[in-house]
């Protein structure tokens, strides 16, 4: 069972910040999940299009300059990070799942990964999105980076939804766990990850039906699971 620290394990600290991501790594996370928004030619690690929930700012993120955004407090004195800062912090210590949250994010990410400093990290990346178009654009530019498709709701035809995407994983909501869909995805060679799981009691059943990993808000989940199953820390 692979454990993704959702937004850096947001129950442990301010979400999508370098501090919380570093804490998740220290706690033994297999993977770090972050969100990126394209803004003024940069990729900011932030979930919402507005600022109030996670920072001391107000209004839409898009209404502010990069300089203004970087001066905001994202919790406990943390700043909104640039994606480059997260890539360099995590390095090869864990998989980095980058969720594309806005139009234009795919193109900026593809350009960034062409830079010499970040090319070695491509093998440890998983790029995901609910936006099929952004995923396809990224695939066309970076066919050597793993892709994950986020889904929410009932799926009538997996092949129709996947279309031309060459996926490595399917990311499903815990509100719509479909045993048949999971089996079909596994038959097609896809990893299946479930979001967002915060109870150890859910893990055994998920493992039994073939789920490969989960996104969680708290590091205690994977630590408790490994202790129960006498598994070493990652």
Automatic annotation (TrEMBL):
Domain GP-PDE: 1-226
InterPro entries hit by this protein: GP_PDE_dom, PLC-like_Pdiesterase_TIM-brl
Molecular-function GO term, any one: phosphoric diester hydrolase activity
Single GO biological process annotation from the record: lipid metabolic process
Name this polypeptide is given: GP-PDE domain-containing protein
Originating species: Oceanospirillum linum
């Amino acid at each position: 069972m692979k454990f993704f620290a959702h937004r850096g394990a947001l129950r442990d600290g301010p979400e999508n910040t370098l501090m919380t991501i570093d804490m998740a790594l220290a706690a033994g996370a297999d993977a770090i999940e972050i969100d990126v928004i394209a803004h003024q030619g940069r990729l900011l690690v932030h979930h919402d299009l507005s600022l109030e929930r996670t920072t001391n700012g107000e209004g839409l993120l898009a209404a502010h300059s990069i300089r203004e955004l970087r001066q905001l407090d994202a919790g406990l004195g943390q700043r909104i990070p640039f994606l480059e800062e997260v890539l360099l912090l995590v390095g090869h210590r864990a998989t980095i799942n980058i969720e594309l949250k806005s139009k234009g994010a795919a193109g900026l990410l593809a350009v960034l990964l062409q830079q010499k400093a970040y090319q070695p990290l491509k093998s440890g990346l998983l790029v995901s999105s609910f936006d099929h178009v952004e995923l396809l654009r990224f695939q066309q530019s970076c066919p050597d980076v793993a892709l994950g498709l986020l889904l929410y709701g009932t799926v009538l035809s997996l092949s129709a939804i996947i279309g031309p995407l060459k996926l490595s994983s399917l990311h499903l909501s815990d509100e719509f766990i479909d045993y048949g869909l999971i089996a079909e995805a596994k038959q097609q060679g896809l990893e299946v990850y479930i979001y967002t799981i915060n109870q150890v009691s859910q893990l055994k059943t998920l493992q039994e039906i073939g789920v490969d990993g989960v996104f969680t808000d708290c590091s205690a989940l994977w630590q408790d699971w490994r202790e129960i199953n006498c598994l070493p820390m990652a």
